[in-house]
Please model this.
Amino acid sequence: MAEKHKIVVYALSTCPYCKRTKRFLDDHKVAYEHIDVDLLDDSKQDEVLDKVEKLTGMRSFPVVVIGTEHWVGHDEQRLKKALNL
Amino acid sequence: MSDAKVERVYCPVCLAKFKYSEGWSEGSVVVCPICGERLTLRKTADGWIGDRVDRGTEKEIRSRIDGFAEIRGYVFNDVKEDIVEGLLGKYKRFGDFYCPCRMEHVPEYQCPCKPTRGGDVEKNGKCHCGLFWKKA
Model:
């Protein structure tokens, strides 16, 4: 199970697809860290946005990071596969 | 050819002007044909301005997105309610109904955002957020 890897969700607090990703992980009782980028203070936000842009080449959300794997968007099939659900 | 000057109304949502129609007057409630916002007409020294009806309320944003979809012939799907919730969150936290799927809180990303008003749904089948969809 990929839960042995660290799971991070970069999200916007208002984004419906980010909420769906978080809801999916909650429903499957998967432990994860989530960062609502739009709610961070300016300096922290710049730092996290740089990180997201380096990782994905864009500023779209949600960004899901599971171990060394990452992708942009709410994708239940990919979540299931990555987490062996 | 008539040389009468065509009067126009300024919409504070899409920041554009649209044609003033016959029969309208001060206090008339009209729908902006560009973004779907309901506006109360007001005459100023600089011309006609539309004031947002029910500004900042759920009624306002629902009326705007429904009006825009009707004007363009777009449809919604089951993500609509989540997006309305996101738009209300944007108003509460950032002061206006900005696109809930973007970081930037600027006038051109007022819903329906400028790319959507500019034809993104025609090109991509949906808007950036997936609120407005082209009819199948």
